[in-house]
């Protein structure tokens, strides 16, 4: 990897955690400079549009880190039902030790983006849509293999699944108590049992 590529990656990785902890509004260019040890000129040589471009790239990176971590857990599982369960167990185990410091980047950025940043909000919606499509893909595989009922409303299930996981994370982190996630996880696991053949 070339030096410029290494520097750009360093900015992205360190900014991803910074934005995830402090939010877009709470993170200044000076904060990014301090976090990375780079000058303003060095930052802008890699990200000509400044803070917003860094934030967008950092958000995409953070979401990718989470997807990769979840993917490592689920890739080895054949059963669609077991894949759906494994995602829940992954989040349960990592509520307080997420792969990106600060918590779930989708959740954190969605709150921040709703305060008037349509570009970031669009990225959050894109990430949520992608997650929803991944769940629907898993459900379709389960229907094809005869594990999951064909008559289920896949979109409704995916929205519930994501909302329950995100809500569980929010409640658990707010209360510093994973029992709140467990309450939501029980509901999701129950719904998974209901859609099985």
**Total beta strands:** 0
Would you identify the regions where 5 or more consecutive residues have pLDDT less than 50? Answer: none
Question: Which sheet architecture does the biggest sheet show?
Answer: none
Seen as an oligomer or otherwise, the chain set is single chain
How far apart are the first and last residues' alpha carbons, in Å?
Answer: 49 Å
- Our Rg estimate from Cα atoms comes to 18 Å
Helix content: over 70%
Question: What is the H-and-E element order?
Answer: HHHHHHHHH
Report mean pLDDT, rounded to a whole number. 94
Percent of residues in β-strands? under 5%
What structural class results from the helix and strand content? mainly alpha
Q: So what's the overall shape?
A: elongated
- Counting H and I runs of at least 4 residues, what is the number of helices? 9
How would you characterize the overall build of this protein?
The protein is mainly α and 197 residues long. The chain is 77% helix and 0% strand. The protein has helices at 3-26, 29-36, 40-46, 51-74, 80-93, 105-113, 118-144, 154-175, 179-195. The protein is elongated, with a radius of gyration of 18 Å.
Write the layout of secondary structure elements.
Blueprint (H helix, E strand, L loop, with lengths): L2 H24 L2 H8 L3 H7 L4 H24 L5 H14 L11 H9 L4 H27 L9 H22 L3 H17 L2
Helix pairs in contact: 1-2, 1-4, 1-6, 4-7, 5-7, 5-9, 6-7, 7-8, 8-9
